[in-house]
TrEMBL record, chains A, B:
Belongs to the peptidase M20A family. InterPro entries: ArgE/DapE, Bact_exopeptidase_dim_dom, Peptidase_M20, Peptidase_M20_dimer, Peptidase_M20A. It comes from Calidifontibacillus erzurumensis. Keywords: Cobalt, Hydrolase, Metal-binding, Zinc. This is Peptidase. Residues 205-311 form the Peptidase M20 dimerisation domain. One of its GO terms (molecular function) is hydrolase activity. Its cofactor is Co(2+); Zn(2+).
Length: 425, 425
C-alpha cells in the first residue's frame, strides 16, 4: 500500500473515532444564531477551533473604499462592525497546489417559528439528524471542512500546498465576505465550497440577483373600491407575468447538467408589502425577489430581459401604460460561475467520492448561486461546489442535516486535499 | 312672509357674507393632521370655535370599563389619552325636538405622498376647491355644521329643541368616539351626519367590519422554489376567491336605494404583507381588509358567510385542506343602519334641499358605513347622512372639496335645524 493510501485509511479511522467532536461542534455552531449582523458568536467558535488546529488565523471586519466601491460589491449594508470574516491558513511545505475551502457562516432568518418542530436554534439531534437554521445551509458543510482539517492536523499530515480555510459572512446577501477575502489577497489554484449539494458535484452554478418592483395603484375608500385601482390586484398581474418570463427563460436552458433540475433559473417572489389601511384601496405594493441568472448570460443581459419584460406589462393590462411598474436591483447578487467538468479539481473530487462512497457521483449544475462565482470570476480561483445536506431543507422550517453525510463529505474533502495539495512524505 | 321664511332668508344672506370665515376655518382644520392618535390640535380648533359660538362645551377622553367592554366597542386601541371627543350644546327653550349634528375629526393616513399634487396637509385652495386629507372626509361637512350654528348664533335665533354638535374621534376605526358620546348620555330625536354624500340623502347605510386573513405557505430556498409553497401565490387564490364572494353577496341586494351603486357591499383587500427574505419562498402572508355588511343582515350573519366561504377554499385548491387560512375580525366595525325613507327628518331635509338647490335630491343607500348605525341602533337616535364632498375623493390622494358645496350644505342643514327643533319666536 502506498503512503497516500495509508494516510487515507488513517483519516477514515480518525473520522470514525471522532464523531462526538464533530457533532458537538455542529451543535454549538447551529445554536449560535448567525443571521445577518449577528455572526460574531458563531465566528468566535470557528476562531477557537482554528486556533486549536494550530492554523494561522486572520480575523477582520470588512470595509474600506476599494471594497465598498468594487463593482462586485453588493450588500444591503455598508457597515460590518461586529460581523468578522475568519480565515485559517495551513501553510504547505512548498511545491504543491493551493486550495481554498470556503464556507459561509451567515444563515437566513428562521421565518415563522411556529412551523418549526424544534426551536430553530436548538441544534437538537434526533435519529441521526441535527436540526436548526443553518444545519444544512451551511454549518454542516463548514464542519466537514473543519473535520477534514482536524484529521490532517491530528495525524500530523504535512502538505506541499497551502490550505486556506474561510468562514465568511454575507453569502446570503451576495457574497461580500468572500469578495473581501479575495481583495485581502486570498487566491488559490482551486476552491471547494461545501454548500448543501446533497453530495452531488456542481461545476456550474446559477447566478442570481435581488430585485424590488414597485407597483402603483390609486387609493379610494374601500366602500367604493370601484373608484380606485388596487395595487394588490395589479401586483397579482405582475406576479403572473413574471411566471411567464421564468418559463421562457428556462425553456432556453439546454445544458445537460440541468437535466434533472425542474427550474434551472427560477424567479422567486420572496416578499410582498402594500396598502396602509384596511378600508382604503391600496395605492402601492412592493415586491422583492430573486432572479436566477444562467451561467450562459451576463448579469447585464439578465437585467435587460427582466426590465423589457416588465415594460411589456402594458400589453397585458393597459393600466400599466399609464402607471408602469419600476424595478430596482438591490442588495444581494451572486455571479454565475462554471469550471470545466474535466478540471483537475473535478477529477480529484470525483475519484475520492467513488473511493469513499463506492458509487459514481452525480455531476449537475447548481440550482442556486454561491460564492463560487466570485471566487472563479473575481478571485481567479476555479471553484467546485460539493457538500452534505439537501437544498430541500435549506431556508425551510425544520432545516436539518444528516450527520452521517457531514462525515462522508469530510472524508472525501480530506482525501481531495491530500491529492490536490500533495503529501509531503 | 312668515317668520320661518324671514329667518331662512337672513341665514342665506349671512352665509353669503361670511364665506371667508368658513374657508379659513376649513383650511385650519385640514392643516391640523388628525390621523388616529393625533386628533388633539384639530379638536382644539373645534373647541375654540364652539366657545366663540357661546355653546356649552364638553370635552373628554373616552375610556372606562363599561365603555371598553361594551359589545359595540371596537378599536385597534384601548388607550385614548390625547385624543379627546368634543361636544357643544345649544340648549333649546323647551318644547321642541332635539337634533344631534355629528361629524368625525379623525382622517385616514395620507398614503403615498408623492401621489399628491399639493401636500396632504396644505389646505391649499385652487379654483374653488380646497385640497388636503380630510377636506372631504369629513372636515368639509363639519364646517357646514359649524357654519349653520354660527349663522343661528349671529342672527340670535332661538330654538325650542336642543342642538347637540359632536366632533368625535375614531370613526375611521369603527366609531368608538360616537359610542362614547352615546354612553355619556347624548341622544336626540334625530341626527344628521354630513359625511361626503355628494349632497345625496342617505337614509340607509352599509355596515362594514375589518378582517385579517392569515395564509400559510411552506418556505424553501428561492433557487429551488418548486420545493416550497409560496404563501404569496396562495394569497392570490384567496383574493380571487373573495372576489367571487363579493359578487354573490351583491347579486342578492335588491333594494332600489342601491340601484346606482356599482357594488353595494364591497369586499376591499386593503393591505398585504408577507415573506421575509427575497431569496426564500414566503411561508406566510397577512391580508387585511374591509367587509361590507348589508343593512338587511346582521354582523354575525355576515361573519358566518365569510368564514364558511373561506373554508370552501379547499374545493378551489386542495392545498387549503391541509393548510386552511384563518380569519380574525379586528379593529373597526360599523353597524349598518336604516331609517324609513318617509321619516320626519327625511321630509325636512328633502324639503330644505329643494328650497336651497331648487331640485329634487337623490335619495340612495350609502356605499359605506358611518357612525349613523351606532346612533340609530345603540343611541336610539334615527340618523340620516347628508353632506358636501364626494366619496370619490375620500381616502384618495389629492382629496379636495368644492367650497361652494360646504356652504350649500350649511344652508340646508341650518334650515332643517329650524324646522326640526322649532323656532322660538
Amino acid at each position: 500500500m502506498d503512503v497516500q493510501s495509508t494516510v487515507k485509511n488513517q483519516i477514515h479511522e480518525w473520522l470514525k473515532n471522532n464523531r462526538d467532536q464533530g457533532v458537538h461542534l455542529l451543535v454549538e455552531l447551529v445554536k449560535a444564531d448567525s443571521t445577518q449582523g449577528n455572526e460574531k458568536a458563531a465566528q468566535k467558535i470557528v476562531i477557537e477551533t482554528l486556533h486549536d488546529l494550530g492554523l494561522d488565523v486572520d480575523v477582520w471586519e470588512q470595509g474600506g473604499e476599494e471594497f465598498l466601491n468594487h463593482p462586485y460589491f453588493v450588500s444591503p449594508r455598508t457597515e460590518f462592525k461586529g460581523s468578522p470574516n475568519v480565515v485559517g491558513i495551513k501553510k504547505g511545505t512548498g511545491g504543491g497546489r493551493s486550495l481554498i475551502l470556503n464556507g459561509h457562516i451567515d444563515v437566513v432568518p428562521a421565518g415563522d417559528v411556529e412551523q418549526w418542530e424544534h426551536h430553530p436554534y436548538s441544534g437538537k439531534v434526533v435519529d441521526g439528524k441535527l436540526y436548526g437554521r443553518g444545519a444544512t445551509d451551511m454549518k454542516g458543510g463548514n464542519v466537514s471542512l473543519l473535520l477534514a482539517l482536524a484529521a490532517l492536523q491530528s495525524l500530523s499530515i504535512k502538505l506541499k500546498g497551502d490550505v486556506i480555510f474561510q468562514s465568511v459572512i454575507e453569502e446570503e446577501s451576495g457574497g461580500s465576505g468572500t469578495l473581501s477575502a479575495i481583495l485581502r489577497g486570498y487566491k488559490a489554484d482551486a476552491a471547494i465550497i461545501p454548500e448543501p449539494t446533497n453530495m452531488k458535484i456542481f461545476p456550474k452554478q446559477q447566478g442570481s440577483m435581488w430585485f424590488r418592483i414597485h407597483v402603483k395603484g390609486r387609493s379610494a375608500h374601500g366602500g367604493t373600491r370601484y373608484e380606485g385601482v388596487s395595487a394588490i390586484e395589479k401586483a397579482m398581474i405582475v406576479i403572473k407575468h413574471l411566471r411567464k418570463l421564468e418559463q421562457i427563460r428556462n425553456e432556453r436552458i439546454s445544458d445537460p447538467l440541468y437535466e434533472k433540475v425542474p427550474i434551472p433559473i427560477p424567479i422567486n417572489v420572496g416578499t410582498i408589502e402594500g396598502g396602509n389601511w384596511p378600508s382604503s384601496v391600496p395605492d402601492y405594493v412592493k415586491l422583492e425577489g430573486r432572479f436566477g441568472v444562467s451561467p450562459d448570460e451576463t448579469i447585464d443581459e439578465a437585467k435587460s430581459e427582466m426590465e423589457n419584460w416588465l415594460l411589456a406589462l402594458k400589453d397585458v393590462d393597459p393600466y400599466f401604460a399609464e402607471q408602469p411598474v419600476s424595478i430596482e436591483w438591490f442588495g444581494a447578487r451572486w455571479v454565475p460561475g462554471a469550471i470545466e467538468t474535466d478540471h483537475d479539481i473535478m477529477k480529484d473530487l470525483i475519484a475520492n467520492y467513488q473511493k469513499v462512497i463506492g458509487e459514481v457521483p452525480i455531476v449537475e449544475a447548481a440550482p442556486w448561486g454561491t460564492d463560487g462565482g466570485l471566487l472563479t470570476k473575481v478571485g481567479a480561483t476555479p471553484t467546485v461546489v460539493f457538500g452534505p445536506g439537501v437544498t430541500e431543507k435549506a431556508h425551510h422550517p425544520n432545516e436539518y442535516i444528516e450527520i452521517e453525510k457531514v462525515f462522508e463529505a469530510a472524508e472525501i474533502i480530506a482525501f481531495t486535499i491530500i491529492d490536490w495539495c500533495g503529501l509531503d512524505e
